[in-house]
Records
---
Amino acid sequence: MANNNENKILNVPNLRFPEFTGEWKKIKVSELLDFYSTNSLSWEQLDYSNGKIKNLHYGLIHKGVPTMVDVACDALPYIKEESMPKSFTIFKEGDVTFADASEDTNDVAKAIEVINCDNQQIVSGLHTIHGRDNSEQTVIGYKGYAFASDSFHKQIRRIAQGTKVFSISTRNFDEVYIGIPSKEEQTKIAKLLIAIDKRIATQNKIIDKLQSLIKGLAVALTTKGKPNIAISQRLECHSSTLQESEVLSNGLYKVFGANGLVGYINTAQMNGDAILVIKDGSGVGTVSYAQGKFSVIGTLNYLTAIGNIDLRYLYFALSVFNFQPYKTGMAIPHIYFKDYGKAKIYCPSITEQKSVANVLDKLESKLFVEQGLLASFNQQKQYLLGQMFI
């Protein structure tokens, strides 16, 4: 690819394929797309099992579907027969739809492009904006990525309205632009990004299979005998009062929270191995493993070994332990060690514990490698979205 950082030619991206030259055309989104009415159907009015017309709810745009939505392959819900709207516009190949609201300005106007419609019918649903390039200035596959680019979302962030929930309307598309090169260059850009997305999808499947294998083996190997020892007899629970606001962006020791590494601090709570357990919030009961000098914020407990026990074995045992009976609280669920610590788990001989932990360790190490690859692919995609568009 050719880099345009030094030449500074107007209206071309920083990074492009070397065979293409000349400036791109900049066009208002409102001049590129014609907009169509959408419905306001809730999840309760949709059904994944059967129906005639599929519905693209804004929640699926935020989480669930890729940039290029393949109608024939991607799972989309149907409109229930009794909830069918009186009028609607069916998607055509290459149509786009935007999520018009989000709690995060980065996700306002998050867009998808519909491909491979075949004979299937799909409509745009709640909190979406349905657009179509009737002038055929773009090729199928280009618009979805152009609307995912950094240059487009920087414009959206400047105009998104709201305090807790940010939103846009079709009127805002009079204020934002995208760049349009020749159709040949559009096609090459789309093919590259579609190939990366397919590789990301494959990598996600690899990770899902590995996670399923590890969980299945952990269940089989740590529950094959009768529960014979209480958790509190082999693990000691430690709490923390550290708040995320006290965490530094740089420091000597890692600090872990509900979402993993959250920052650093200069004084470590722990020096050694420990099992980390989320004790409240949406991820309550999720376990992870930490080593060396580290600290945790107050939403986590860390558990250390008592007596002659393999801590990694207990980590895998707790990773498949059912915390559900020990959850308390309605709005924010909690678990307490004083409650689930009384539960018994199966602890075989120390030799067998080490053997089980060794098998699962190797699989988990493989999982971490695959997750690292996924992160690399996602970083590559984000870099290209930041450099290949204007």
---
Amino acid sequence: MSHHIAIIGAGIGGLTSALALANAGHRITLIERSTGFSEVGAGLQLSPNASRILIALGLGPALQRAASDPTRVVIRSMKSGNRIGEIALRDHMQSTYQAPYWVIHRADLQTILLDAVRSRPNIQLLVGRTVTNATQDNTGVSVAITTAGGALENLQADMLIGADGVRSTIRKVIGDTRSPVYQGYIAWRTTIDSQLAPASLPRDETGLWLGTHGHVVHYPIKNGSLTNIVAIQRSKEPVEGWTAPGKLSDLLVSYGTIAPELKQLLSSQNDWLLWSLAYVTAQKMFQGRIALLGDAVHPVLPFLAQGAALAIEDAACIVQELAASPDNITQALASYHAKRIDRARKVQDNSKRNGKIYHAPALIAVPRNMVISRSGPTGMVKRYDWLYGYKG
């Protein structure tokens, strides 16, 4: 049975759910507040639990052209630069989970998804529109919309998906009025020309630098021509907005003494965008004919690189449950909640715990480093079989 489904938010989760539901025969109206889709200075990671879903949607060839697949993650000390251990990626991930571990510029992934969405005749994309409210009854959902020009619109649909981010309007609509809580971390993001990176840092590897006052992750995007850098800083005070400018000198002061090659890497770019990391525990993934997806219901701290992956998993699960209960949307969404809530919380909890492990004080860092070293590249992966091996 085909349904008319409204989706709020054309981020990774919203675009993926629109494409997957359209492929299943549903009619989609995708509503996005912004009028543009590019995002500067942001990369993301697509672990096998997410890449296999995108490949099943027919996006494999396009992603393979745009994404990079690092050979491994090399873990180092921020302070000394000493190598702590590594995590096997490329060949091991493919052979173990039958899907790649990709890294990609967010704008490239959005473009690939947008191209696919725009090619589907059963998807209508509305941009420059803000959803202000939604109501539902036994027959459908009514969505209140304000256009960029201030005009009021109303959309009727059989079902609504809120993929509208950590400060979700739709989360409040279904009765979860909690506000995200600042977690004491600021994320700094930028991209650099890979030729500016220290020659000692191979372009086909991901780097993870662990320190008491924060950590740094970098990996290749744009087929290795660019390097995406994410620097996490402990901070008692949040910053305003999602793209606050940052002064590198402030970051370096907060880190204290760091290895020369890491300082060289960070100093190769002066333009940084900052945002504060906020969090709300997954609680309520649906009500009646309305479902939440991605950061709208389970924002994840970026210490497991699973924010986009979880949203992609959510999209695939909604499609499966609607196929299993085609005549009963409420039953399908109740099954979606039941199948997803524990996993979402487990990923949230593990991501939060990783932050404490990454930023361990010296006395705890020593045994941590020993565990990482003794686990070996494949042992570090095996502890996350439950994550990367997920197939719904």
